[in-house]
Design a protein that fits this description.
Layout: E1 2-4, H1 17-20, E2 29-33, H2 35-46, E3 53-57, H3 67-79, H4 81-93, H5 110-118, H6 123-131, E4 135-141, H7 149-156, E5 161-165
Parallel strand pairs: 1-2, 2-3, 3-4, 4-5
Helix pairs in contact: 2-6, 3-4, 3-5
Length: 179
């Protein structure tokens, strides 16, 4: 399996074993979490290698957010990246509390944040991937504080099987989790 990490994270795929463990070792599966879901789609769209399944875990979906919201996010990040990241990850973890997420952290860049906020999820790319026979699965949490999961669910269900777990947040967890 090829995995793409979320914004300001690395090697966090273990946190999603509930969804990924059956695919580990399968070279025909591509997965990505949040920002990594963008990278996963782009990879599958461009690759000529065989891909059977694309797993999008809480894909970054900001199509419904205003330009003012996106501008404010970028300004807060520029002002104090560490403080911004702390708040961002607290919201990503909700309703779970991660006691030791530090082993997965890496400082993201403004360019990555801009890509995450501005990505438009091109329908033609999703349709092209699905038409090639790639099974697309989307996993969303109903208590997500990062994206509007219901709106994302309504969008993505047109291209694959979209699952909405109502008690989960962005990290697809509901309780206390130790990283």
């Amino acid at each position: 399996m090829r995995y793409f990490s979320g914004f300001s994270l690395q090697n966090e795929s273990i946190l999603f074993d509930e969804f990924l463990k059956e695919y580990r070792g399968n070279p025909y599966v591509v997965a990505g979490f949040s920002y990594g879901a963008i990278k996963a789609l782009e990879y599958v769209y461009k690759t000529e290698e065989r891909v059977e399944r694309l797993l999008l875990l809480s894909p970054s979906y900001f199509l419904n957010r205003s330009k003012a919201f996106k501008k404010a996010q970028k300004l807060y990040f520029k002002k104090d990246p560490s403080h911004y990241l702390s708040g961002f990850l607290k919201n990503a973890a909700y309703p779970a509390e991660y006691s030791e997420l530090s082993s997965f952290l890496k400082m993201g860049t403004l360019k990555e944040l801009e890509e995450l906020l501005e990505y438009e999820w091109p329908e033609e790319k999703l349709q092209s991937v699905a038409t090639r026979g790639v099974k697309i699965e989307i996993y969303l949490g109903g208590k997500d504080k990062i994206i509007d999961a219901m709106e994302a669910h309504d969008f993505f269900k047109n291209f694959g099987q979209s699952y909405l777990f109502k008690p989960y947040g962005h990290m697809l967890k509901e309780g206390v989790v130790s990283g």
